[in-house]
Prior knowledge:
Elements: E1 2-5, H1 13-17, E2 22-24, E3 35-38, H2 46-51, E4 57-60, H3 70-75, E5 79-82, H4 88-104, H5 106-114, E6 132-136, H6 140-151, E7 155-159, E8 170-171, H7 174-180, E9 183-186, H8 200-204, E10 210-214, H9 223-232, E11 235-240, E12 260-262, H10 271-292
Parallel strand pairs: 1-2, 1-3, 3-4, 4-5, 6-7, 6-9, 7-8, 9-10, 10-11, 11-12
Helix pairs in contact: 4-6
Amino acid sequence: MKILISDAFDASLPAKLERFGEITEDKGRLAEVDVVLVRSKTKCRREYIDEAANLKLIVRGGVGLDNIDVEYARSKGVRVYNTASASAIAVAEMAFALMLAVPTRLCEAHLSMREGRWAKKELKRTELFGKTLGLIGAGNIGTEVGRRAAAFGMQVLAYDPLVKSHEIAKLVPLTELFEQADYLSIHVPLTNDTKGMINRETIAAMKDGVVIVNTARGQCVVEEDLAEALASGKVRGYGTDVWYSDPPDQSCPLLTAPNVVMSPHIGASSVENMQRIGEVVVKILEDFEQQIA
Ligand code: NAD
């Protein structure tokens, strides 16, 4: 079989895939290949799938499938898989890093030292211990974040309409989550329901001074509404790994809003996770090879 590696995977992956057939990174050969491996950069929409006349399998190294028109691919007989749970630890650690960076004021502290300022008196900080974390989405990543939060002495609540019981979080309705959470961490897929779910109206229902962490998708928040709430202090801080587009447009109001800690969508990109994703891709190809034999 011919396999196109279309996005950035672990450098060891091409060698691991050689036993399955010919490996190429030349996107100009899309029409020839049986399998395409993507992360989030390649967008597999209708035109892309139509162009890939021989395509039988798309593997997304990662979780969300929002860069793939899954329904259209399947209607064309193309199977679509992701590496569902592989990224949970990497992204949970990123969410936790962002969640710690806001109350510890780590970025401001670091920058003040770089600037030669001793800001010991002005950098008043707070703790996570004893605070309430609200998870929006309690799947693989939300659960790992909840685990870490419990170890930090936080009370963990979660809203997830599809989860009926949870080992760590107390499941509550969304209104209750907003009323009680000092910290909110978003771990939902991007769907019609979750797009723009953090907006002026929902922010108004949250606790004053709430901190929001987003490692899910940038489109889950309405950027202008959140920037306004950060400016007023209604939202005390926002830690984000994700953006409307990668990279964000320079006009994105969150780039200049106060108390934002940000990273360039690196949640899943740990060295260990890239290796883990590679292992899952190999397993998917083994299964696929057997199915078509
Ligand atoms: P998952 O499928 O294990 O969990 C998602 C959970 O969200 C599910 O339990 C589902 O029931 C719940 N959910 C769906 N709609 C909801 C809603 N309207 N309100 C509340 N809960 C809802 O997925 P996961 O592995 O935990 O990943 C979550 C998301 O994280 C992915 O969809 C992706 O967008 C994002 N992600 C980001 C990175 C990154 O690099 N920052 C990496 C991987 C995944």
